[in-house]
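ok, trying the design again with the full structure, not the truncated one.
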């Protein structure tokens, strides 16, 4: 555990080989926490990898806490962890919300980033938010969208994210839990190319659903503390940092248009579109691309 101030302590773990290529893994959500499967994207003989649970989630404390929990708090936490490890710079690896945080960190501290490996690009622009919570994904999963909005009275459905905020911050734990399960089920339906019942059960399990739903909603209500288009406007700060983006063609959670816009703003990045890929890193084509990217940056022969 690392005490980072503001009442927060974050869980971290370090694996691989001491003296190997330094890397930090930034999980998604926000609010999901890290898992053993995520370590498998790095060759442990070549990497010295740090993974951590971001504020309020996983094994970090306090549980599901929204206070002092912003994008810029997390960027500061990453720097504290880098200093703790004694690395001059490291590879930054993140998918989904982890790609957002990776970009925010890299644009703030470009001198500390050796390379970037990103998946499922999310730039937190209004059109991306609207795709998932207004119109877009709703057309592909109409029956699941109806279940999602059914949790909210009709008169509040004009702003679904705000309506869920009221329930996810309720003083009644039962109200919180019901809203969290509905929120997490909707997201879970959009993240895989093919149905995955085991993954959906994990997404909607109480101790997973509550922090993810509360923290995601908290970030989205506040637009992740980013100005509209900020990560594209500041893409010039990434100049000179080698990067690879692995993006599923059929990613219904973070569609490929965001990755394409980032590629145009950051021409030197390598964008790989996986033709049969969705959103999650566990899908075969996505996993293959990510492992090949981490191997390449460690100098491993193909």
């Amino acid at each position: 555990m690392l005490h980072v101030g503001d009442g927060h302590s974050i869980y971290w773990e370090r694996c691989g080989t001491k003296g190997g290529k330094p890397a930090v893994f930034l999980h998604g959500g926000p609010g999901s926490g890290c898992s053993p499967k995520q370590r498998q994207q790095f060759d442990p003989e070549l990497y010295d990898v740090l993974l951590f649970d971001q504020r309020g989630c996983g094994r970090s404390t306090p549980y599901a806490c929204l206070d002092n929990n912003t994008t810029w708090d997390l960027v500061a936490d990453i720097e504290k962890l880098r200093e703790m490890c004694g690395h001059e710079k490291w590879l930054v690896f993140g998918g989904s919300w982890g790609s957002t945080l990776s970009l925010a960190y890299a644009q703030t501290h470009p001198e500390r980033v050796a390379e970037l490996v990103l998946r499922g690009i999310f730039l937190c622009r209004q059109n991306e938010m609207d795709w998932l919570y207004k119109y877009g994904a709703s057309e592909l999963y109409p029956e699941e969208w109806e279940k999602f909005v059914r949790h909210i009275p009709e008169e509040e459905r004009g702003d679904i994210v705000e309506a869920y905020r009221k329930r996810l911050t309720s003083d009644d734990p039962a109200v919180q839990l019901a809203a969290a399960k509905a929120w997490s089920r909707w997201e879970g339906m959009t993240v895989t190319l093919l149905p995955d019942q085991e993954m959906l059960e994990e997404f909607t399990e109480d101790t997973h659903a509550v922090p993810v739903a509360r923290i995601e909603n908290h970030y989205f209500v506040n637009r992740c503390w980013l100005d509209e288009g900020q990560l594209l406007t500041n893409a010039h700060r990434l100049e000179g940092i080698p990067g690879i983006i692995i993006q599923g063609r059929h990613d219904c959670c973070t569609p490929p248009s965001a990755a394409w816009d980032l590629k145009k703003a950051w021409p030197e990045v390598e964008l790989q579109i996986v033709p049969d890929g969705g959103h999650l890193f566990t899908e075969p084509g996505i996993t293959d691309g990510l492992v090949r990217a981490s191997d390449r940056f460690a100098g491993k022969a193909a």
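Keeping the full-length input from now on. The mean pLDDT is 96.
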